[in-house]
Structure to design on (236 residues):
């Protein structure tokens, strides 16, 4: 019932499930449309339109508060960033550590905490009772994303508090070749022409913002896959 403590939480779970059914990509806490992206090809950047959502109790009842968001992704992989510094470990760490990356194979995001120059895709790790290489693991689990550079170092991401509470242990080691950086570097932020190009894509007139938001709500209520799903009666 609406008066129950967990009512708001359950409704939020339902809305997020509908967004996934609609094919939106969940990056962090927000949802983005890869299919509606705009490429700045000469800048090697891609801009994804997205939505920020929160459920709140208002005088009229439970409502969704929605705002527009944009996510900037660099089209060059982390490996290309590493190679551009010609083996200078200090410069590589300065460029990568602290950035958020998105994996090409499952679209999950991770924060880079370090670069492990002692490990490569040929290094081994323990899975269950078996020792296997990162190359073997990724080749079998994600065959559509081959690893070509077998000498590249691995990038390390520490587990979040939520993941540690779930019982996960150790750090996450990622293949730079299969990761792209989200957001902009300092040099890109200082590029006036680039920031102007991004502003032209992400800034919408009030009428256009309303059309985007109303279009999203229509999809949430009328999308055939959402309507055929058991949770649809809760969206009204």
């Amino acid at each position: 019932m609406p008066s129950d403590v967990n009512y708001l939480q359950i409704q939020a779970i339902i809305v997020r499930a509908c967004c996934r059914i609609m094919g939106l990509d969940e990056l962090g806490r927000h949802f983005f449309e890869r299919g509606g992206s705009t490429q700045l090809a000469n800048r090697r950047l891609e801009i994804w339109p997205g939505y920020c959502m929160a459920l709140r109790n208002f005088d009229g009842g439970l409502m969704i508060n929605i705002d527009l968001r944009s996510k900037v992704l660099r089209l060059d992989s982390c490996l290309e960033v590493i190679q551009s510094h010609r083996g200078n470990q200090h410069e590589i760490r300065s460029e990568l550590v602290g950035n958020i990356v998105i994996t090409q194979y499952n679209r999950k995001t991770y924060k880079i905490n370090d670069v492990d120059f002692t490990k490569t895709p040929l290094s081994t790790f323990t899975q269950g009772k078996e020792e296997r290489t990162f190359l073997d693991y990724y080749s079998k689990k994600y065959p559509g994303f081959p690893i070509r550079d077998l000498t590249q170092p691995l990038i390390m991401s520490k587990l979040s508090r939520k993941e540690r509470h779930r019982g996960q242990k150790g750090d996450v080691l990622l293949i730079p070749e299969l990761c792209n950086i989200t957001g902009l570097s300092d040099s890109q932020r200082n590029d006036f022409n680039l920031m102007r190009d991004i502003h032209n894509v992400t800034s919408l007139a009030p009428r256009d913002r309303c059309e985007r938001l109303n279009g999203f709500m229509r999809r949430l209520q009328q999308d055939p896959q959402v309507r055929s799903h058991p949770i649809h009666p809760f969206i009204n």
User: Anything to note?
Assistant: Residues 37 and 48 are 4 Å apart (CA to CA).
